[in-house]
Specification:
By secondary structure, the protein is mainly alpha-helical. It has one domain (about 1-125): Up-down Bundle (de novo design (two linked rop proteins)), CATH 1.20.1440. About 85% of the residues lie in helices and about 0% in strands. The protein contains four helices and no strands. The protein has helices spanning about 1-30, 35-55, 60-90, 95-125. α1 (about 1-30) packs antiparallel against α2 (about 35-55), α1 runs antiparallel to α4 (about 95-125) and α3 (about 60-90) packs antiparallel against α4 (about 95-125). The mean pLDDT is about 95.
């Protein structure tokens, strides 16, 4: 049981650090109208990952818990989309490309963890 608690706390911390890193990245992007819209979308979807994970900790049932994970996964998938759009559009300045790619990879890993957890929860039903 202790191992599970440690794993949850590490994941919680990882998500929180990811959100802070994402916000700091977004602040450094230029302010063109298109980028402004993408920044708003990424702020919403990226922070929603953490908000829903943190909210899951107070879930009133297993189904409620799984629903928060599902919403977090959807938010992670949306964040992957917006990060890929930034990269593929060429709108990210050269000095921020590496960081954007790293954020995309981290988002993919977080999404995979949520997806795997959801599958495990469904099998236990």
């Amino acid at each position: 049981m202790l191992d599970k608690k440690i794993i949850k706390e590490k994941f919680r911390s990882r998500i929180y650090r990811y959100i802070l890193r994402l916000i700091k990245f977004l602040v450094r992007l230029p302010n063109s109208p298109v980028i402004q819209e993408i920044k708003k979308q990424l702020t919403r979807s990226g922070t929603s990952i953490g908000a829903n994970y943190f909210e899951s900790e107070g879930a009133s049932s297993k189904k409620d818990y799984q629903n928060f994970f599902t919403i977090a996964l959807k938010s992670a998938n949306e964040s992957k989309f917006w990060l890929a759009v930034l990269i593929d559009s060429g709108l990210v300045p050269g000095e921020l490309i590496k960081e954007c790619n790293e954020l995309l990879e981290e988002t993919k890993e977080i999404a995979n963890i949520f997806a795997s957890s959801i599958l495990t929860m469904k099998r236990k039903r």
